[in-house]
What we know:
The structure holds two protein chains of two kinds. By secondary structure, chain A is mostly helical.
Amino acid sequence: xxxxxxxxxxxxxxxxxxxxxxxxxxxxxxxxxxxxxxxxxxxxxxxxxxxxxxxxxxxxxxxxxxxxxxxxxxxxxxxxxxxxxxxxxxxxxxxxxxxxxxxxxxxxxxxxxxxxxxxxxxxxxxxxxxxxxxxxxxxxxxxxxxxxxxxxxxxxxxxxxxxxxxxxxxxxxxxxxxxxxxxxxxxxxxxxxxxxxxxxxxxxxxxxxxxxxxxxx
Amino acid sequence: xxxxxxxxxxxxxxxxxxxxxxxxxxxxxxxxxxxxxxxxxxxxxxxxxxxxxxxxxxxxxxxxxxxxxxxxxxxxxxxxxxxxxxxxxxxxxxxxxxxxxxxxxxxxxxxxxxxxxxxxxxxxxxxxxxxxxxxxxxxxxxxxxxxxxxxxxxxxxxxxxxxxxxxxxxxxxxxxxxxxxxxxxxxxxxxxxxxxxxxxxxxxxxxxxxxxxxxxxxxxxxxxxxxxxxxxxxxxxx
Lengths: 217, 238
């Protein structure tokens, strides 16, 4: 499975200097708003588990924009992204009772379900099917990672990503956001497959080590 | 974290990241469905990496998406008529996914798979053949496994490479099993760099050590390893 190399701006470069526009210390990590939002999502999931359709609709209204964007970024076709969202949300409705707020944020749970479904669809080669390509908008953003600073978890991840060397960071970002496999990453960055694999492995190990102290209960 | 659980934890991270090829991802799902530690690793990685999603600016979903979802949710008690599946599921979907619109199929999903939904949405979308034993085969003293070996209930052992494996010119890799307490390993045949499936039917599996040695092309001429052990790992029950 390979990406369309004609796709403009696909390999957005990670800004080196401008990227450090906000030092973690400068960011006011006001935890209250994000915590409240997270609690609200968790509560909506729990109400959905009890069959509350209005709560589920509210969950959709609050989360569908960011989740659809993720699915679209991975599938690159609106119809496939919509399928991924449909499948994922039906799954959430059916299995909302399996969500446990103690084990993670509702947003992370939703993100994972949508991503897995989108990845599953493209992994079956469906992305090869000619269809409407999504006009690239995301990559015009000079600093996509700055958006992470909006939440405490995101800011921590942002800081840890900055600690990685640029190659590892870039590979991890593209794997996550674009749903690129090792092989696809190797093709598009013209790197040996083994280098891609070891970079990602080391990058993840670095992230884990960086996040662990903060993530410790 | 011991070497092996370290391997599995990073593997879980790569899975969550989405960088694994389809068959590798499936293998990790099989592992996670049976091994609580792997499932826990996946969950931890989901929590670590999910904030990255914020890097993608939100987009307005299609206007009809909600009504499609609603049509698949099953009817509220007072309106049974809407329990019909939507007629428009795309043909590209896998057969199980296509059956999704059917509430009956949904309810038929096994409790175990439903449980798996707690950590990964994907596991309720697919029904992997559960592996019973697995081993990560790594070079001595090195953290990165080169192969993942998984045994199915039917006794077949699937050995898949997790990283590109280089074989010295004129050499072949050969796979060996050394059951616990045994003094000499049993050959499981030559192992191509792309991996292969072998039968372990006639061997005990508990704590069996798997080894890969470098042998002359075509395999060991003596029936026992003659070259150095490149990778090894112990089968553990999932």
